[in-house]
Amino acid sequence: MAAELFELGAAGVEMQEPGMLLMPGTPALPEGMGRAIAHFEEQNDALEAAKALHTEPPVEVPAQDWSTAWRAHHKTMKVGPRSFVYPPWEPKPDGVGVAIDPGMAFGTGSHPTTALCLERTDELLSERPGSSLLDIGTGSGVIAILAAKLGAAKVAGTENDAVALEAARRGETLNQVSGIEWLLAEDPAEAPGEYGIVIANILLNTLEELAPRIALKVASGGRLVLSGLLAAQGDAAQAAYVAQGLQPVARKELNGWLRVELERP
Asked: 38 lies in which domain range?
C-alpha cells in the first residue's frame, strides 16, 4: 500500500501496523488491520489516489509555511519547581531556564515522558544538592543540561545516535554550560563510575534489555528514574530492576505515560 501511494504521488506515507503502540489520542486500529496515512501536495492527486485504491476520501489541510509555522508549537514550559524549558527565540524565563532548539533529537520537554523526567531531575537535585547524574538516551541533552544548571557535581549523557549527540553538544554550548561528558555508546555501562541519580527515558524493551547494565550505574543510596513508558508498562519495567536489587520508591502518571522510580539500598 505504501509503495502504491508513493507511485501515485504521495509526498510521505505513515504506516501504523497491528500490535504497534500508538501515541495516546491516536484512533485505535481496527482488529487485525493496519493503516496507511498518505500526504499529497495537490488535492487532485489525493482524490485520484483515493479513487484508485478505494480508500477513505482525503482530508484537506490548509497550506502553511512549515519552515516557520512549527515554531508556534514550541513555547516556554515550566518543567519543575525551579526550572523551565524554552525555545531560543523566546525570552529567557526567570528561574533556571534551558534553551532547546527543536531539531532532530527527542527532548523539547513537551512530551509527557520528558516532562516527568525533567520534573524529577529538579526535585532530586533540590533534595540531594550536588549529586552526580547520568542521562541514558540523552537525545537533545535537555535533562543533562538542566542537571548541570542545577548544580549537579558530575553530569554525563549517553546516546547511540550520533546525530542526537551532536544536537546535545550544541545545546550545551547554547546554554553556556560546560563539563558534561557526552558518550556515543550502545552500552550505558561505558559511562565511568556510579551516579547518585540515573535517568533513563527510553522504551520498555530497551529498559528491560539493558536492566543489568543500567542498574550497575546506580550508586548505593542512589535513585533510578525510568520513563518512556505507557501506564500499563510500569510493572514490567519495575520488575526488571527489582531483579537487579533495586527497590521501588514511587510512580507518577501524566497523560497516559508513566515515571517509575527505584532506589539502590
From this structure: 2-53
Are 151 and 179 in contact by the 8 Å Cβ rule? The answer is no
What's phi and psi for 13, nearest 5 deg?
Answer: -135, 130
Claim to verify: residue 146 and residue 32 sit in the same structural domain: no
Shared-domain flag, residues 139 and 211: yes
CATH of the domain at 126: 3.40.50.150
Count CA atoms within 13 Å of residue 88 on its CB side: 12
187-219 burial string, b = 16+ CB within 10 Å, else e?
Answer: ebeebeeebbbbbbbbbbeebeebbebbbebbb
The pLDDT tens digits for 56-81 are 899 888 776 655 666 776 789 999 99
C-beta separation of 73 from 101 below 8 A: no
Q: What is the pLDDT of residues 128-187, one digit of tens each?
A: 999 999 999 999 999 999 999 999 999 999 999 999 999 999 999 999 999 999 999 999
Contact residues for 49 (Cβ-Cβ < 8 A; gap 6+)? 5, 8, 9, 10, 38, 40, 55, 58
DSSP state of 89: T
Contact yes or no for 200/136 (Cβ under 8 A): yes
Q: What global pTM score does this model have?
A: 0.77
The whole-angstrom separation of Cα 133 and Cα 158 is 11
According to DSSP, the residues that pair with 227 across neighbouring strands are 201
How far apart are alpha carbons 243 and 207 in whole angstroms?
A: 13
Q: Are residues 48 and 72 in the same domain?
A: no
Torsion sign (Cα): 212, 226, 83, 122: negative
Nearest to 199 by CA among 101, 256, 122: 122
Q: Are residues 108 and 231 in the same domain?
A: yes
